[in-house]
Specification:
Helix content: 25-40%
CATH topology of the largest domain: conserved putative lor/sdh protein from methanococcus maripaludis s2 fold
Shape: elongated
Strand content: 35-45%
Number of domains: 4
Number of strands: 24
Order of helices and strands: HEEEEEEEHHEEEEEEEEEEEEEEEEE
Structural class: alpha+beta
CATH class of the largest domain: Mainly Beta
Strand order of the largest sheet: 3-12-15-14-13-16
Largest sheet: 6 strands, antiparallel, barrel
CATH architecture of the largest domain: Beta Barrel
């Protein structure tokens, strides 16, 4: 009985030795493989604790700060209009109206001024002569008073004539319709040869340089949104930081929505009418662990980040993303505040691979 049990223990002991040997060989092979993997050049950043809120994306449209339908200020036949797409500076001529009547009116009023100036010169000379006669009592005082009155009335007529000249100059200048701001002619609303009257729309002029986004937000978000608040805009897969320029706290009775005006980043290239999405907080901010967007590696099987461990090797962690503000995204899945995460060079990293900081600093050796 004892011999049988002893004989049975021999295979078990051999099996245990074999398992330990295999484990040792596997560990050694893994260590050797890890030593053989070349160091990867990466850039790192620290995960941080941030106050963030879940985001909701609102549909928005790029609009111009200046989008006007320019009208004529005077009656006349249209003789020239800038073509569509013309780029204009402030004060440039957009359209011209036949100015012959205004030119004649200006010439007539200038002539009237010259006539009155000559008459006043004569009346002043005549008054001086009458004053000398009145001093010697050679004429009645009523004659002198009449001359003074005639001179005063003529001077008033001259003032009115000069006003008429200035008005004629203004009317003549109005025959040239000018751009009130820099922009492009988008649409011609009148054609050459048509008769224009004051208030007749001539062209549509749009400022294509000074743009912003108009978005509609539910009125329920009024308690978490305010002027100057940081938000993001998204166009396709591109996300950029920006801010709310103005919140219009007046809700529509039917849609229960209010308008947001959001600034556009100066570095972007946008077209009036383009569709964008505006990411705004959907609730009160909460304390979360956040990493830069560049730390996220998106794959078919999910989203993950590479954390740099104490031995300066890469550790792959699957994460779940949450709220996002600017270039930071809240994550859950083992990441803690202060952890070093790879933000550049993580696309080809492998689990356990040594990492080296770009610029020649070796994280493993501290050099």
């Amino acid at each position: 009985m004892t011999m049988t049990m002893a004989k049975a223990k021999i295979p078990l002991k051999g099996t245990l030795v074999a398992v330990l040997a295999a484990a040792s060989l596997f560990t050694g092979a893994a260590s050797a493989q890890q030593r053989q993997m070349p160091s990867a050049l990466v850039e790192v950043a620290e995960a941080s604790s941030e106050m963030m809120a879940p985001q909701t994306y609102l549909p928005g449209t790029v609009v111009s700060l200046n989008d006007s339908r320019i009208s004529a200020e005077i009656a006349g036949r249209v003789v020239w209009i800038a073509s569509e797409g013309t780029l204009l500076k402030e004060g440039d001529v957009i359209a011209e109206i036949d100015d012959r009547n205004q030119t004649l009116a200006l010439a007539r009023n200038k002539s009237q001024v010259s006539r009155l100036e000559a008459r006043i010169k004569y009346l002043e000379s005549d008054l001086k002569r009458l004053q000398e006669l009145a001093a010697n009592n050679n004429i009645p005082s009523s004659r002198l008073e009449e001359a003074e009155s005639t001179l005063a009335m003529t001077r008033e007529e001259l003032s009115q004539a000069r006003v008429a000249v200035e008005q004629a100059k203004i009317d003549l200048d109005r025959t040239k319709v000018r751009a009130p701001f820099p922009g492009r002619v988008v649409e011609r609303l009148a054609q050459i040869g048509e008769y224009s009257s004051p208030g007749r729309q001539i062209v549509r002029l749009v400022d294509t340089e000074h743009l912003e986004v108009s978005a509609q937000a539910p009125v329920t978000l009024a308690r978490v949104l305010n002027d100057g608040q940081k938000v993001v805009i998204r166009e396709d897969q591109l996300v950029a930081d920006t801010k709310i320029r103005a919140l219009v706290p007046v809700g529509d009775a039917l849609s229960r929505s209010m308008e947001l005006r959001v600034s556009l980043p100066a570095s972007g290239h946008y077209v009036v009418g383009a569709a964008l999405q505006v990411g705004v907080p959907a609730n009160t901010p909460e304390q979360v662990v956040a990493v830069p967007r560049d730390a996220l590696v998106l794959r078919r099987e999910g989203t993950y980040v590479f954390r740099v461990k104490e031995d300066n090797t890469a550790e792959r962690l699957m994460v779940t993303t949450g709220a996002a503000t600017g270039r930071f995204v809240a994550v859950t899945g083992g990441i803690e505040s202060g952890d070093r995460v790879v933000v550049r060079g993580g696309e080809r990293l492998r689990e356990g691979q040594p990492v080296e900081l770009r610029g020649g600093v070796n994280l493993a050796s501290g050099r």
